[in-house]
Design brief:
This protein is α/β, with parallel strands linked by helices. The protein has a domain at 26-287: HUPs (Rossmann fold, 3-Layer(aba) Sandwich). It has helices spanning 59-77, 93-102, 106-123, 139-151, 180-189, 229-241, 255-270, 302-307, 312-320, 332-349, 357-369, 374-386, 394-406, and strands at residues 26-29, 34-37, 43-48, 81-88, 131-134, 156-158, 161-164, 205-210, 225-227, 245-251, 276-282, 285-287, 290-291, 328-329. Helix 4 crosses helix 6 (229-241), helix 4 (139-151) packs across helix 7 (255-270) and helix 6 packs across helix 7 (255-270). It starts with 25 loop residues before the first strand and ends with a helix. 48% of the residues are buried.
């Protein structure tokens, strides 16, 4: 599956950093409940779970992918090459249900929404993944992973469907740090089937679903059918990035069951641990007092804002005004404030001279390496834009800074 075009990332001078400074990116790891420094090798490896392609791209999606775009940009600024992989779940129950409701072919629906997602990501200047992989094209990889699990006696059958027993992974629960009592309602709410008769454990995860009438299916050693959700990301991430990746990311609603199950699948199948050194999660965006979600229908779409004439950089600034881990609620005045900020920044970088860029570069870098504190980074550029100075090179340098680290074209 093709990705979207990349915007060029300017190279920045090493300004505003004391000699010998620890330039590691620190991120909050859900698995430990603490900030930890990321320590990639020459290449930093990141997997971010992609969309199920219907109702794309709402601001909750955009908020998540902007967070990991910052990770990508900060690592690059620290001198790492970044190997970034993202999936698209282009066959799954919610997609098939929406296709039936609307009378649209499920493949046509997926293709349309993925193309819309690509256009929105490009407009927001989100750096594209090196591999953008659909679930359908990954079915051979998924089958291979399930076969590895089956060889380790980590599968069992219920009425033709294949399940993964969570008891196969002694570390199950270490990603989300939830108790079983906390897991149970979330599993049911987020696509699980805890009450299905015949399961050994209510939390056991579906690996392969036997083909249902009027639904797509693919041949496999387990019979004709289609993959479960969690194993999709396990198979794709292991194939393209291997084990012990630096970051696996997504929205906070993916910590359990999706990332928990995916880690277990990968660890049991490969016999290696951990699947990822850090599990990083973005907060939820709300509208009208509730989480912005497809099921509630309370969505604000990037494409519709763009169609109404909103500058994508204003949308980006409106999202970056919130810390990526925060849960927050979208309101129209936030977009107005972001547009005003964008105008102030563009006026500032158009001046013939301004305060030196070194101090603001240091402040932005310090903010972003400290768990992606984008609001502090924006405030640093705000302060620079409001001040007077005589450095004729500074405006262009700060424009490059905003572009390279915040993805904002001025």
């Amino acid at each position: 599956m093709r990705s979207w075009p990349a915007s060029e990332v300017p190279s920045l001078p090493d300004a505003g950093l004391p000699a010998g400074a620890d330039r590691a990116l620190r991120l909050y790891d859900t698995g430990t409940g603490a900030l930890r420094a990321t320590r990639p090798g020459e290449t930093a490896r990141m997997y971010v779970c992609g969309i199920t392609p219907y109702d794309a791209t709402h601001l909750g999606h955009a908020n998540t992918y902007l967070a990991f775009d910052l990770v990508n940009r900060v690592w690059r600024d620290l001198g790492h090459r970044v190997h970034y992989v993202q999936n698209a779940t282009d066959v799954d129950d919610p997609l098939l249900e929406r296709a039936r409701q609307t009378g649209v072919d499920w493949q046509a629906l997926a293709e349309r929404e993925i193309e819309l997602f690509r256009a929105d990501m490009a407009a927001l200047r989100v750096l594209p993944p090196d591999q953008y992989v659909g679930a359908v094209e990954a079915i051979p990889l998924i089958v291979e992973m399930i076969e590895k699990l089956r060889a380790k006696d980590a599968t069992y059958e219920v009425d033709g469907d294949l399940y993964f027993p969570v008891s196969a992974d002694p570390g199950f629960g270490s990603v989300s740090r939830l108790t079983r009592a906390e897991m149970a309602p979330l599993f049911a709410e987020r696509g699980g089937d805890p009450d299905r008769p015949g399961k050994r454990d209510p939390l056991d995860a579906l690996l392969w679903m036997a083909r249902r009438p009027d639904e797509p299916g693919w041949d496999s050693p387990f019979g004709e059918g289609r993959p479960g959700w969690h194993v999709e990301c396990s198979a794709i991430s292991v194939r393209y990035l291997g084990m012990e990746i630096d970051v696996e990311g997504g929205g906070s609603d993916l910590a359990f069951p999706h990332h928990e199950m995916g880690a277990s699948h990968a660890q049991v199948a490969t016999g290696e641990h951990p699947h990822a050194h850090a599990y990083v999660h973005a907060g939820m965006v709300g509208l009208g007092g509730e989480k912005m979600s497809k099921s509630r229908g309370n969505l604000v779409f990037v494409s519709r804002l763009r169609e109404a004439g909103t500058d994508p950089m204003a949308i980006r600034l409106a999202l970056l005004a919130h810390h990526y881990r925060a849960d927050w609620e979208w309101t129209d005045p936030q977009l107005d404030a972001a547009a005003a900020r964008l105008a102030r920044w563009r006026a500032a970088v158009a001046r013939p001279a301004a305060p030196p860029a070194g101090p603001v570069a240091g402040a932005v870098r310090d903010a972003l390496t400290a768990d992606l504190d984008a609001p502090a980074a924006l405030a640093a550029i705000d302060a620079w834009a409001a001040a007077e100075g005589a450095d004729g090179e500074a405006p262009a340098q700060v424009a490059a800074l905003a572009d390279a680290l915040l993805g904002v074209a001025l």
